[in-house]
Amino acid sequence: MKKITLIFNWKYTNSMSIKITLFLNTIPYPANHGAKVDIWRRIVMMHKLGYVLQLICWSVEGLSSENKQKIEAVCNQLVIIPIYKSFWRKYKKAFLSLYYSFYPAEISVYTDYPKLEKAIVAFQPDFLWLESYAPALPALKMSKKLSIPLFYRSHNIEHYYAKMITAFISKPQTKEKIYSWFISCNLEHFEKKLIQQSQVVYDISIDDLQFWKTLYPNKKIIWLPPFATHSNQNTSHTQKKSIDFLFIGNLYTKNNIAALKWMLLEVMPIVHKKLPNTVFHIVGSNPSETFLSYLGSFDYVKTAINVDSIEPYLKNTRIIVNPALKGSGITIKTIDGLQSSTIWVGTQQAFKGLPEAFYEILHPAENAPTMAQQMIYFYTHPDQYPFSKVSTLCNHYFHQLPQQILKHLPKHIKKDSLCKQ
Asked: What is the pTM of this model?
């Protein structure tokens, strides 16, 4: 039977340093997709601000020595709880899903609570930090039992997102119907309970924050935008670039697949009437063979699958497109697209969660014709794109603001944890 893996990397710290135990539903490095990029950048910034970190991760993957060293460089203790399949856990997870929702039930089933409690008590954190709702059951249980404040970082309105993904399933098979039902089952009730029981909620999106504030006006909910690590002020947007149009994102979720089909069937035909020789590059991860074959049927499409880094593509692209149709939260590809020295064009959904200031200088595409018109216009008139204004906004909202918010986390701690008494 597999056990919790404790990887100790204790460092000397000032006794007055604030200690944080973070609950993560995955090993955060390598940061090879949007959610992990967001989490990893925040962990690195917490470390730079002087916080002492304990990372508790659930994962089906192993950890290479190289990646272990990367993580050890920014935390004082790493606790990995392996997720492995077994017959009884499968049915226990299905049973718990009826009460707590699918992903929280899955994480809970694989958790050895006595050993987890022992690790947390030994670390003596000032507060717990929950990244996304999946590890919520262990976080809530430890917060209550040890009287440690719980801060929750919300990545989405999860129950809305689950329903949206289900709506994209066309003619679902029985297996898909059952899976979607388990994911959505009781999720809204569970998510609302999580919001209420967290001492502070940090939301990724302004729009999502307003949703929760409407339901819980007295709840302390703070906007914490994703952190962008690179700046477009040091790169030139006038340099020659070989990629005409670029999409970055996973190629397996229903909403991304629907967005790309909309681009290929409704937007790009309009673009090609004016710009017939342009190529649409798609950099994505884990597509099915069927969808990859579908993308290959368009002669103006080039794909790059499971690349090690998107940086070379960002630097060599004239226009990044975000054709999102449904969703919530803010996508990292939106942040990195705005932050790069590249023209960024997106739908109304792609703008969701951004401050109003972005709407004043960039105009969301309302439909396929307006999306195509913006792509054509900025392709032929790149000097008309407000690079300087976008850069100023990104520097404020995605560099300075998240650092200030993370810097002031301790002021929201109401009481010391019982495990320190």
From this structure: 0.82
Tokens for 351, please give them: 């703008």
Ranges of residues in the chain whose predicted pLDDT is under 50? 1-3, 6-15, 232-235, 416-421
CA–CA gap between residue 294 and residue 273 (Å, rounded): 22
Return the pLDDT at 337.
79
Task: Give the span between the Cα atoms of 406 and 56, in whole angstroms.
Answer: 19
Give the integer Cα–Cα distance in Å for 283 and 256. Answer: 12
d(CA 162, CA 314): 30
Nearest to 138 by CA among 267, 49, 238, 21: 21
pLDDT in tens, 237-281: 556 789 999 998 889 888 899 999 999 999 999 999 999 999 999
HEC sequence for the chain: CCCCEEEECCCCCCCCCCEEEEEECCCCCCCCCHHHHHHHHHHHHHHHCCCEEEEEEEECCCCCHHHHHHHHCCCCEEEEEECCCCHHHHHHHHHHHHHHCHHHHHHHHCCCHHHHHHHHHHHCCCEEEEECCCCHHHHHHHHHHHCCCEEEEECCCHHHHHHHHHHCCCCCCHHHHHHHHHHHCCHHHHHHHHHHHCCEEEECCHHHHHHHHHHCCCCCEEECCCCCCCCHHHCCCCCCCCEEEEEEEECCCHHHHHHHHHHHHHHHHHHHHHCCCCCEEEEEECCCHHHHHHHHCCCCEEEEECCCCCHHHHHCEEEEEECCCCCCCCCHHHHHHHHCCCEEEEEHHHHCCCCHHHHHHCCCECCHHHHHHHHHHHHHCHHHCCHHHHHHHHHHHHHHHHHHHHHCHHHHCCCCCHHHC
Query: Within 13 Å, how many C-alpha atoms sit on residue 283's CB side?
Result: 22
185: Cβ–Cβ under 8 A, 6 or more apart, which residues? 97, 98, 101, 102
Are the C-beta atoms of residues 154 and 208 closer than 8 Å to each other? yes
Q: Which amino acid is at 171?
A: K
**Helices 174-184, 158-167: crossing angle, 10 deg rounding:** 170
- What lies within 8 Å, CB to CB, of 277 at 6+ separation is none
Q: At what angle do helices 102-109 and 136-146 cross, to 10 degrees?
A: 60
